[in-house]
Amino acid sequence: MKDLHSHITLAVAIGNAVLAADNTPVAIDLQGYDAAEIELSIGAGGITFSGTNKIEFVLTHSDDDTTYAPVTTADMLGVTVATGGIIKSLVAAHAAAAAYRFGYKGNKRYLKLLADFSGTHGTGTPIAANVIKAHGFSNPQANQA
Q: Is the pTM of this model over 0.85?
């Protein structure tokens, strides 16, 4: 078995919570790493999503942690990015928990992930997201147990 553990570090992008409104995005610093993967976990939808009552996950990136711009498809692996940096949209029923992953190949130092709620969300939806930072310049990476 190959050793992945010594070559990755996790950073929390959206803390595990039941959300009914936008999160406050935190900056994920990629300095010292050559690769990043965004892992998004979504529980059963608190509502039946639609084109009006929806959640859009917006990924932005920055060189200076001040000016953020939406990612584009050219910055990502495994997803066609919609206008405004939308990497995932919940616009239809989401009856069961699911996990999604998106590769970041852009060249910016910082990432932020926003769960952008539109419409009415009387009941929250369980959401969590992590950024897996990989190919660090200094391995092995510290344990996070």
A: yes
